[in-house]
Design goal:
It contains ten helices and 13 strands. With 329 residues, the protein is of the alpha/beta class. Helix 4 links the parallel strand 4 and strand 5. Helix 3 packs across helix 4. It starts with a strand and ends in a 5-residue tail after the last strand.
């Protein structure tokens, strides 16, 4: 008995923001952007909100599973770009999908959102009160960054990943273990200061542009690598797993240079990492399930493989999970 991945899917917009386009806007060199980030283009969503990207992915996910929206029992939306302050994006998705028998809620853990959602969904299913959970991880990051910010605008894009998890009676537990952690030492290094209850939006605050998410610390790169390494090592040691047992690592697509450094720190070849940031950008909560879905679709990840998924996000939130793949719908 355990938790199985019934199906998964993703949505990325067709519109691309290339390095050449960014370079012209920001007055910098296209080659410099590629060198610093490893990103060639990011996807931009012009046709709706975070919920619309989720619904696009969720419809495909449910079709793959042979299920109707009315069969869904719980919806978890991991996002930091909610459609509204109120109601929740889970409620909006519920309305648009027609999941009339489901309850749901949002979870905000920035780039670790999918890992946090996976931990919560596992607990919900192990309670035996529900048979399935639709775990949605998505962000429209272009809605919360300053297009003229030479740090954030180089990195972020828009996208959604959706995974349908179910409780199964057989002995194949695909979610072997998940560890989620929080280290608030460098709390505000990635932050959007205005728009919350502490600093409500006013005409004066809009002048500062602090409603946009900003990077305020030079330690984000090194700190992120250290937290990635910590939680991946911890979940492996806890479950007596070595890298010889792991076929792939699917990390949050933060920055290609960060992932290359992580591979070096872990002593693993970069080929062992599923990386798609070059042509999609950093989609925040959506990055892990999008990369996972793509790797399922092109059969890099196959039944019988064991993989690690991991994320690090603002706060700093971080987490890692070991998955034993049974099928790849």
């Amino acid at each position: 008995m355990g938790i199985a991945i019934k199906s998964l899917s993703h949505f990325v917009p067709d519109t691309k923001l290339t390095n050449d386009m960014l370079a012209e806007r920001l007055g910098i060199e296209s080659d410099w952007i590629a060198e610093k980030t490893g990103i060639m283009a990011r996807r931009i969503y012009h046709d709706g909100a975070t919920s619309d990207m989720i619904v696009n992915a969720a419809n495909i996910c449910l079709e793959k599973a042979g299920m109707k929206p009315a069969d869904v029992e719980c919806i978890i939306v991991a996002t930091m770009t909610a459609d509204f302050l109120c109601p929740s994006t889970a409620a909006v998705v519920h309305h648009k999908l027609g999941t009339v028998n489901a309850w749901g809620f949002d979870a905000m853990a920035a780039c670790s959102g999918f890992l946090y959602g996976l931990q919560i969904a596992t607990a919900v299913l192990n309670s035996r009160q529900h048979k399935n959970v639709l775990l949605c991880a998505a962000d429209k990051m272009t809605s919360i960054i300053d297009p003229m910010d030479k740090k954030t605008s180089l990195i972020f894009g828009d996208g959604a990943g959706v995974v349908l998890l179910e409780y199964v009676d057989d002995e194949h537990n695909e979610i072997i273990d998940t560890i989620c952690k929080l280290n608030s030492t460098d709390l505000m290094s990635v932050s959007a200061l205005d728009g919350g209850s502490k600093n409500p939006i006013t005409p004066d605050t809009l002048v500062r542009c602090d409603q946009f998410m900003k990077f305020t610390s030079r330690g984000i790169f090194s700190g992120g690598v250290a937290l990635f390494k910590e939680v991946i090592t911890e979940v492996m040691e806890k479950n007596k797993v070595t890298f010889d047992d792991i076929d792939y690592i699917v990390p949050h697509q933060a920055n290609k240079r960060m992932l290359e450094k992580l591979a070096e720190e872990l002593g693993q070849p970069i080929e062992k990492f599923i990386i798609n940031i070059e042509h999609i950008g950093n989609t925040n909560s959506g990055s892990v399930p999008i990369a996972l879905s793509e790797a399922f679709a092109d059969e890099r990840i196959k039944p019988g493989m064991k993989i690690i998924v991991a994320g690090v996000g603002a706060g700093f939130t971080y987490g890692a999970s070991i998955l034993s793949i049974k099928h790849t719908k």
